Amino acid sequence: MSAGDSYTESQVIMSTVKIVTPFVLTYGLFITFHGADAPGGGFQGGAVIGVVVLMLAFAFGIEPTREWLDNRVVTGLIAGGVLAFGAIGLASMLLGGAFLQYELLPIHHPSRYGIEGIEILGIAAIVSGTVIGLFFATAAGFTADAFAPSDERIETQRDDRPRTGRTEGEE
With contact defined as beta carbons under 8 Å apart, do 132 and 124 qualify? Predict the structure, then answer.
């Protein structure tokens, strides 16, 4: 454990998270898959699924969780959700209709499965990836440079600029 790491290992929390995680994940998937027929949907289910990763990070440490769930996976989850949403919406446009006009899709019960596809493949993936990504970004913290006045921040980033903190027109 490094000096800046605030993680404290707790056997109670670790054991509880190991037991609760499969149930919370299953509940998040249930909310996502039954969103068209019952309260819930892609947004609520995606948030619950994203919180599963947060629980793991709180129990086992943020850095080990971040190493386990690489940024490429989180970014791919968000991008995949956007692509799925766009693909379903554009498919109806290619068939001569409007964006997300499900009735034109060449599938059985196009409205039902079109909405389910948007909720499950699109919105749930985008929301869960965003929850996880925002958590990791916030947990990474901020550098001292982020709070420096804008003139000082620019000076530390660019070596070709004068170090006086003044712009060219000031005296």
Answer: no
Q: Is 98 in contact with 88 (CB distance < 8 Å)?
A: no
Mutual orientation of helices 124-140 and 71-94 as an angle, nearest 10°? 150
pLDDT tops 60 at residue 88: yes
Domain ranges in the chain are 11-140
- 162 with 152: CB under 8 angstroms? no
Exposure of 67 in the CB half-sphere (CA atoms within 13 A): 4
Give CA–CA dist 129/74, Å, rounded. Answer: 5
- pLDDT tens digits, 20-54: 999 999 999 999 988 777 777 889 999 999 999 99
Q: If DSSP states are collapsed to H, E and C, what string results for 48-105?
A: HHHHHHHHHHHHHCHHHHHHHCCHHHHHHHHHHHHHHHHHHHHHHHHCCCCCCCHHHC
Q: Name the phi and psi angles at 138, rounded to 5.
A: -70, -40
Average pLDDT over residues 95-108: 90
Digit-coded pLDDT (tens) for 145-158: 555 555 554 554 54
